[in-house]
Write a structure and sequence with these properties.
Structural class: alpha/beta
Mean pLDDT: 93
Strand order of the largest sheet: 7-3-2-11-18
Number of domains: 2
CATH architecture of the largest domain: 3-Layer(bba) Sandwich
CATH superfamily of the largest domain: FAD/NAD(P)-binding domain
Shape: globular
Helix content: 25-40%
Number of strands: 19
Low-confidence stretches: none
Strand content: 5-15%
Radius of gyration: 22 Å
CATH class of the largest domain: Alpha Beta
Number of helices: 13
Amino acid sequence: MLKTVVKENRHRRYIYNNLNIDYISRDYDVVIIGCGIAGIYAALHIDSSKKVALINKGELQSGSSYYAQGGIAAVMSKSDSYTLHIEDTLNAGAGLCDREAVQVLVSEGPENIRELVDLDVPFDVNSEGELLITLEGGHRQRRVVHCGGDATGKETTNRLYEIAMQRANIKFLFGTSLSDIILDDNGGAAGVILKDSKNLFILECANIILATGGIGQIYNYTTNPKGSVGDGISAAYRAGAVIESMEMVQFHPTTLLPHYETDRLFLISEAVRGEGGILRNRQSDAFMQGVHEMADLAPRDIVTRAIYKELLKSGDSCVFIDAGSMTREFFAERFPTIYNECVKFNINVPVDFIPVRPAQHYHMGGIKTDLHGRTNIAGLYACGETASTGIHGANRLASNSVLECLVFGRRCAYYINNNFNFVGTNSVRPQIRTIVDKKLDEYQVKGFTAEIKNIMTVYVGAIRKVDGLLYALERIGRILDYLEDCAVCAAEEAELYNMAATALMVVESALERRENIGAHYIEE
């Protein structure tokens, strides 16, 4: 069962047509794109003698890390073992995991948790000061540590940001988007083209880490924040990086209904089921019984498809989580964010069932990396969700995502510290393309954006069909071809181009893999 690899880029090399660069800077030794947990944690492990730029498209709260509810999986109790965590990860990944990468993840997990404890990340503890550990789907042991009940991402991101702000060698550039990666004459990383609200500029640098998160905003319904369209993957692709397993898109089984008008859907953490929550249909049947040996705690792809089958059979818009085995006090303390969100919609938890349905949540594919986060381009690294380390295979195990950010963010930093690259003396200014006359207007941008999202939602979701994938291939391919002939000048136009390129990679990879495995499921 081989990984799918996206074929060579056939579109433009640089996303902006007219590269009128406002200025070039050589102020930084390391450039990190993305200010989630992977990016900031990596920055904190870069040698303090090196100047680091942390680039973020939005504000600190705009990344997926900030909204991570469940926690961080690691072997932190005597009843657990590396062997069990490795086996659970491999089982969830449906045979497509890289075993060596999984072994690195699991074996280095506990030391990274202990480091976070030393950094005063506010993990939840019991009365004796010991870490509270919970259970989530796909895990056979309690091994998930958490902060603020269900606010692990927020608390961890905020604390790492506080520490990074105190480091003289680290500077944050918010409201700044990655446009492209520049290569030197030998094909190695030499810098990045960035765009803020005023300027298009270059940071010359031969040590670049991409930690740009997921691709969820190519779908209508996602837990990913606005702007998550695969910018890092698309830029790496244009530069010649190997992109793999793009078809492996994970849909979380339980996001809250009603789906009100928002860019990001609210997640009901798997930990709710780990603490005793039961999935039920409108007739109150516990429909996961008999579907899988782990029932409600089965891997996410299995639960998601089981929910869709229930909805198809019943015609309902949702199923429900029954949290009736918990007291109100326990639920409110253990899941304060979820409890307060339910209160907003007059859902009286745990008396009332919580209405839920699946939505896009995570991407297992991306930029191919080795065990040090290295891509096939010298000096270019990737970590976190934007990377394809081989850890997750065909389906990510719950709460392994933040762990991956920590383990491989730190590994990227350590490798750079020991193998630092210097920018050559040759200019890295990219060749300016010919300006094209055809321009996009705001209605086209909105129209193409909506069409791509609709196509991906209908035809490239958790359950796919070959004829639907072929339609998506033809239509999204046409959109991207049209954009190829247009001048890309504004940030929203660049985001549309990246969205189309990312979506097409997902579709092409889905058509290439005809076997049903993990999150990739083609219905006959």
